[in-house]
Design a protein that fits this description.
By secondary structure, the protein is an alpha+beta fold. 38% of the residues lie in helices and 19% in strands. It has 13 helices and 12 strands. The longest helix has 21 residues, at 263-283. The structure holds a DNA duplex.
Length: 425
DNA sequence: TCTGGGGTCCTAGGACCC
DNA sequence: TCTGGGGTCCTAGGACCC
């Protein structure tokens, strides 16, 4: 017998802020923000900061004076720390369900099909308490028959003071009440374009969306819209996805800490990004057949001359060798780089990925690929052990004056012996 | 002065073929 | 004036997610 679908969505509250607070407990009731790469945007806010009206994803400089005036603690993002904390949270969740789908750095779906529904909210509370106790991270949990409804539950749990962090939406009456409380813009899959359109057409809440005509939805929102509506009605259309699908592309791009104007610096930066992307490629046990290099001026500065070139390179043989990839990418850089512009950002995208054991040989290719592979494996091991860039290609540059800003980064408390937290007793 | 980064999927429209 | 029709494949752009 196939049991009724039952999902929990576990969502970490203000995740990056919570990670910083674990290691700086005195910030527990203080306003805190975490910035994006290059200290550009605000990507995580504590509740105190949300209450000040600071918008998610807004440019830091727009709120800088407010932030300073209110004594808000500011952190550059520390993805090494957040990635490690995320792994810890996910490993706790694995105790509570046979199937955990890690949906993002701060969210996971748990398959609870077959679990007793009359005690499921208490089970959710136990999960919540255990994650908090073992990792220090507070979470909100939604439990329902579909993933989209579980998301709604977690949204309500986060915003309701009496829910105790867990909201179950199994009873039709509760479900309707929850959907009526949820703005249509908060529904999973309704983004910044669709939300205003829906609202203009008289659909303000998730409940109204769930009652919309299916054919009309198909026309307005495509096939995915129909699935969303079905899910809101309690019919599961998005199953658990436990096995991680192989990646279809790998990107590495960064804004520069200051404008780049010379070919030499642009080449260094692109070489560094290729190197990072190639590490990920090897982690993925894949090789790449085609890559795209791009660079751009500051699109926000209307007074400056704009230039956003890109170039696609097809590699003679699919590879994951950093040296070869840098060589190819830098040729593209030379072709599209023009002097006279202030570049703000550059990047590389590996498209056309193949599993490394399916490499198509080129009969004119004389490179000894097995030796090259072993060399890269050794470099990766050394960099894992002694820190990234312990061994690097000269093309990446040594001082990297164009490197992004991250002046307010916290230590890597959990992944570097030299940065452990010290406690004075 | 100062505006992130990394993904996936869907669709419309053009190119091309018969 | 009148200017086929239908299928497939590819790609760019748009939408979404975190």
């Amino acid at each position: 017998m196939v049991s009724v679908p039952l999902f929990a969505l576990v969502d970490c509250n203000n995740f990056y802020v919570s990670c910083e607070r674990v290691f700086a407990p005195k910030l527990r009731d203080e306003p805190v923000v975490v910035l994006s790469n290059n200290d550009g945007c605000i990507v995580a806010r504590s509740n105190e900061v949300k209450a000040l009206g600071v918008k998610m994803g807004s440019p830091y400089f727009q709120y800088r004076s407010l932030i300073e005036h209110r004594g808000v603690q500011v952190f550059s993002s520390n993805y090494t720390l957040y990635g490690d904390m995320s792994r810890r949270v996910m490993s706790v969740l694995a105790y509570f369900s046979p199937e955990v789908e890690v949906y993002s750095i701060d969210e996971a779906f748990l398959n609870l099909a077959g679990f007793a529904t009359n005690t499921i909210t208490d089970y959710g509370k136990k999960i919540r308490a255990t994650v908090k106790q073992w990792t220090g991270i507070p979470v909100s949990i939604g439990i329902a028959n579909t993933k989209t409804l579980a998301k709604v539950g977690a949204y309500i749990a986060k915003h309701s003071s009496k829910a105790g962090g867990v909201v179950t939406l199994l009873h039709p009456r509760y479900r309707e009440r929850a959907l009526a409380m949820t703005p249509v813009a908060e529904v999973w899959g309704i983004g910044r374009r669709l939300a205003p359109r829906m609202m203009g057409l008289g659909i303000q809440t998730a409940l109204q969306l769930s009652r919309a005509n299916e054919r009309w939805i198909r026309k307005q929102m495509g096939v995915n819209g129909v699935r969303i509506v079905q899910e809101l009605r309690g019919i599961s259309c998005f199953p658990m996805q436990v096995a991680r699908a192989p990646k279809k592309s790998i990107t590495c791009s960064r804004s520069f800490g200051r404008p780049v104007t010379t070919l030499t610096e642009m080449q260094e930066a692109v070489a560094a990004y290729v190197s990072r992307a190639a590490e990920e490629l090897r982690e993925e046990r894949a090789v790449v057949k085609e890559l795209l290099v791009f660079m751009m001026t500051n699109r926000f500065n209307e007074k400056e001359l704009q230039y956003h070139p890109h170039m696609t390179v097809t590699l003679p043989v699919a590879t994951s060798n950093t040296g070869e990839l840098i060589h190819q990418a830098l040729q593209a850089v030379e072709k599209i780089f023009k002097t006279g512009y202030k570049y703000k950002k550059a990047g590389v995208i590996f498209t056309e990925l193949l599993p490394e054991n399916q490499t198509q040989m080129d009969m004119f290719d004389t490179t000894n690929r097995s030796r090259l592979g072993k060399l890269m494996a050794v470099v990766d091991r050394i960099n894992t052990r002694f820190g990234s860039r312990s061994l690097q290609f000269a093309a990446q540059g040594i001082t990297q004056p164009w490197h992004m800003k991250c002046d307010m980064r916290s230590p890597c408390y959990t992944t570097d012996w030299n940065q452990l937290l010290t406690v004075q007793a």
